[in-house]
Design a protein that fits this description.
This protein is 24% helix and 27% strand. The mean pLDDT is 95. Strands 1, 2, 5, 6, 7, 8 and 19 form a 7-stranded mixed β-sheet that branches. The longest helix has 21 residues. By secondary structure, it is α/β, with parallel strands linked by helices. It has 7 helices and 19 strands. Bound molecules: NADPH dihydro-nicotinamide-adenine-dinucleotide phosphate.
Length: 313
């Protein structure tokens, strides 16, 4: 086995939850070590302007905001490192986390802030226009398409909720549903179907997001008739679910069926003492930068109390 390093507080993940946990843990003297993962800054680094994070009256670009988070954590003394947690061993009172399939870190407390990843359709055009009219977050980006016609793909509660949100801002919302029914709860479906400016395209799959530098339309195919139509839209929202980045913790932590880590209500505690979870990896409901940051703060405070109570700090 390769040599291991001992730390009192290990933070895994570098989105708003991880960096906020780092700021609080550093200020509390826990000398946290933070591993950033493969996408330093997390999901906000693939969005454009963020207008709903308090404290930025003029808005800010997502990647810039995450640089601010990182700088603040570094200024407080967090040891920020590039590296991916690839395995964990939570058998003993000292938790072990492997980085990059090599080095093991031994940590008295661990804060998991590994986030979630939006699922994508997998089209080349979707990837190319990501951030230029293609988005996986209507609440984040819908406002930029005020008064415009847009499309959203998906038929779960998220898609229904986001379609309703968009219908209040945009002139028309085209909802692309691959089957002849929706997975969303009945009440959400009813609301969608009753909303005049939402048009549901049943039995439809997206063939291509059209646009050179920005989205100008979407081509969809009706799988029953075989007919293809092009709809002129300014934005294409993908709402086909998220995947929490929690697979390495599966053998150890209690999760729901979708893989979201279960925390004790009102706290960031998991089923293992000294292991805390914050941000989107444990939140499938709100998924906002500000709620993730808030839960990162909770995790650091919980970790500090745990370390004090256990006599480590
Ligand atoms: P879901 O997994 O519930 O739904 C995903 C939707 O995307 C399904 O309709 C699915 O279609 C569709 N889909 C998946 N892959 C594709 C694809 N390749 N092409 C086209 N469509 C596709 O995810 P959600 O994010 O909607 O919800 C996750 C969980 O969070 C659920 O339990 C939900 O109830 C909950 N939630 C609750 C809310 C609330 O109560 N207010 C709000 C938001 C979410 P198909 O049905 O054909 O499989």
């Amino acid at each position: 086995m390769s040599a291991s390093e001992r730390v009192s507080c290990l933070i895994i993940g570098s989105g708003p939850a991880g960096y906020t946990a780092a700021i609080y843990a550093s200020r509390a003297g826990l000398k946290p070590v933070l591993y950033q993962g493969i996408q330093p800054g997390g999901q906000l680094t693939i969005t454009t302007e963020v207008e709903n994070y308090p404290g930025y009256p003029d808005g800010i670009q997502g990647p810039d905001m995450m640089v601010h988070f990182e700088k603040q954590a570094a200024r407080m003394g967090t040891d920020i490192r590039y590296g991916l947690a690839t395995a964990v061993d939570f058998t003993g009172p000292i938790h072990r986390v492997q980085i990059d399939e090599e080095k093991w870190i031994e940590a008295t407390s661990v804060i998991i802030s590994t986030g979630a990843s939006a699922k994508w359709l997998g089209l080349e055009s979707e990837q190319r226009l990501n951030g230029h009219g293609v988005s996986a977050c209507a609440v984040c980006d819908g406002f930029f398409f005020k008064g415009k016609e847009v499309a959203i793909v998906g038929a779960g509660d998220t898609a229904a909720e986001e379609a309703l949100y968009l219908s209040k801002i945009c002139s028309k919302v085209n909802m692309i549903v691959r089957r002849g029914e929706m997975r969303a709860s009945k009440v959400m479906q009813d609301r969608v179907l009753k909303t005049e400016n939402i048009v549901v395209h049943w039995h439809s799959i997206t063939e291509e997001v059209i646009g050179d530098k920005t989205v100008s339309g979407v081509r969809i195919k009706n799988t029953e008739s075989g007919k293809t139509v092009e709809i002129p839209v300014s934005a294409f929202f993908v709402a086909i679910g998220h995947e929490p980045n929690s697979s390495i913790f599966k053998p150890w932590l209690t999760m729901d069926e979708a893989g979201y880590i279960t925390t004790v209500p009102g706290s960031s505690k998991t089923n293992i003492a000294g292991v805390f979870a914050s941000g989107d990896v444990q939140d499938k409901t709100y998924r906002q930068a500000v709620t993730a940051a808030g839960s990162g703060c909770m995790a650091a405070l919980d970790a500090e109390r745990y370390l004090s109570a256990a006599g480590y700090h």
